[in-house]
């Protein structure tokens, strides 16, 4: 028989037991789905991490109370029970580092705010940032229109506000000039002085859905006890390491730590973010691999079982074909193709469903959808190996049947 005829015969044989064939493919689909879905989501997050690092800046690092990635668990109390970084300590740090860094910005923030202008309102998910005049430069924001915060705004705790691009497009859909207009945030009214240029998303979160007010007004009217974050921009990449070392010493001095006391603050650098994400990704990947491996092995056993049943049911058919001259190699190829087709069909279903599910997770976190071509190729190769490995014994058994004994079967 020609190869094409063998393929047609194999597909017709599977079609004759359609329900059983589909149930068999579902085992493979589940295993492939789990690994493809997880790896699609992780690759989307990986891209977001890269974008987030570029938004932080190559020469920029942050000093915070908590680590770059804080998932709780072991050591949780050590971070929670740390004293907050106070505004006064932030000011002391700025004085100590004013000759060593290009920009040093202080900030605090709170999510879940709603901005209102006349009869238009944003969703209650706007981030309110209390910051000083160096916030925009240190954090890579540009002023699209109007002006930035100035020292006098901070000194006198003025009720002025910068609005992010997303807030601007929501409240001013006609793209009119919003400067000097009054904006209500919760129960307070602020005068708009500028618009921040679009910055995009980082780590799955929009960087444009925010408003910025003077940190002194934030402390006076919203929360005076919140831990302060400090963003430091080194003068150049060549001085980054020395600036980082000097910042640690300056922060220890500002916090009043003795030589025997360990740091009670964290540095958020590009390297710390990458390391945190790498650990997270490795843990999730191992879990997904174990689940997928168990599902695929189970599916392979199911394929072997179904093919052995098929050989038993079609013993007389095999005897007739061999008696009229069909070689054993042709029968072996047909049964092997049936097993391979079952495995690859399940793999295709798992790839499509897994890619869709992974991208739904990515879209839910404002991440760009992707196609994990490497893992799709790996899944196809693994499914092929599963089909061949677990189909070879039933196929060999069918090809080895004696035609006389096979014709006697009922």
User: Ends: how far apart?
Assistant: 26 Å
Q: Outline, from the CA principal axes?
A: elongated
Structural domain count: 2
How do the SSEs run, as a string of H and E? HHEHHEEEEHEHEHEEEEEHEHEHHHHH
Structural class: alpha+beta
How many strands? Answer: 14
Give the helix level as a range of percent: 55-70%
Reported for the largest beta sheet, the result is: 12 strands, mixed
Content of β-strand: 15-25%
Rg from alpha-carbon coordinates? 32 Å
Unreliably modeled segments: 70-74
Transmembrane segments: 21-45, 286-311, 331-353, 373-393
Main location: membrane
Domain ABC3 transporter permease C-terminal: 289-403
Keywords: Cell membrane, Membrane, Transmembrane, Transmembrane helix
Strand-helix topology:
Elements: H1 3-15, H2 18-56, E1 60-64, H3 76-80, H4 87-97, E2 103-113, E3 115-117, E4 120-121, E5 126-131, H5 135-138, E6 143-146, H6 151-155, E7 160-163, H7 165-171, E8 182-185, E9 188-196, E10 201-202, E11 205-206, E12 210-214, H8 215-221, E13 229-233, H9 240-255, E14 266-268, H10 270-313, H11 315-323, H12 328-364, H13 373-399, H14 403-408
Parallel strand pairs: 5-12, 7-9
Antiparallel strand pairs: 1-13, 1-14, 2-5, 2-13, 3-4, 3-8, 6-9, 7-12, 8-9, 10-11
InterPro entries: ABC3_permease_C, MacB_PCD, Macrolide_Exporter_MacB
Keywords: Cell membrane, Membrane, Transmembrane, Transmembrane helix
Transmembrane segments: 21-45, 286-311, 331-353, 373-393
């Amino acid at each position: 028989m020609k190869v094409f005829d063998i393929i047609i015969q194999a597909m017709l044989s599977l079609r004759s037991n359609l329900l059983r064939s589909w149930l068999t493919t579902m085992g493979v689909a589940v295993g492939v789905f789990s690994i493809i879905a997880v790896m699609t989501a992780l690759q989307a997050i990986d891209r977001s991490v890269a974008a987030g690092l570029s938004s932080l800046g190559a020469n920029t690092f942050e000093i915070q109370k908590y680590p770059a990635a804080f998932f709780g668990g072991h050591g949780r109390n050590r971070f929670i029970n740390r004293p907050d970084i106070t505004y006064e300590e932030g000011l002391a740090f700025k004085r100590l580092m004013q000759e060593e860094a290009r920009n040093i910005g202080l900030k605090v923030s709170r999510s879940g705010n709603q901005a209102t202008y006349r009869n238009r309102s944003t969703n209650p998910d706007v981030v309110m940032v209390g910051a000083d005049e160096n916030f925009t430069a240190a954090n890579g924001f540009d002023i699209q229109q109007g002006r930035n915060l100035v020292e006098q705004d901070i000194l006198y705790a003025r009720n002025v506000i910068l609005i992010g691009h997303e807030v601007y497009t929501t409240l001013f859909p006609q793209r009119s000039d919003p400067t000097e207009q009054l904006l209500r945030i919760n129960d307070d009214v602020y005068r708009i002085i500028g618009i921040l240029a679009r910055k995009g998303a980082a780590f799955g979160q929009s960087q444009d859905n925010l408003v910025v007010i003077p940190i002194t007004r934030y402390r006076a009217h919203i929360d005076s006890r919140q831990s302060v974050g400090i963003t430091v921009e080194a003068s150049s990449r060549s001085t980054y390491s020395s600036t980082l070392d000097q910042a640690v010493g300056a922060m220890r001095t500002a916090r009043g730590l003795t030589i025997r006391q360990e740091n009670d603050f964290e540095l958020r650098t590009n390297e710390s973010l990458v390391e945190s994400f790498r650990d997270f990704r490795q843990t999730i990947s191992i879990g997904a691999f174990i689940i997928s491996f168990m599902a695929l092995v189970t599916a392979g056993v199911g394929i072997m079982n179904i093919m052995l049943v098929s050989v038993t049911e079609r013993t007389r058919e095999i005897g007739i074909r061999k008696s009229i001259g069909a070689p054993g190699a042709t029968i072996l190829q047909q049964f092997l193709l049936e097993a391979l087709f079952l495995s690859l069909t399940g793999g295709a279903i798992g790839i499509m469903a897994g890619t869709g599910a992974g991208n739904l997770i990515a879209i839910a976190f404002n991440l760009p959808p992707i196609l994990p071509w490497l893992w799709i190729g790996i899944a196809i190769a693994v499914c092929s190996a599963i089909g061949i490995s677990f189909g070879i014994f039933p196929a060999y058994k069918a090809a080895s049947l004696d035609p006389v004994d096979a014709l006697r079967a009922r």
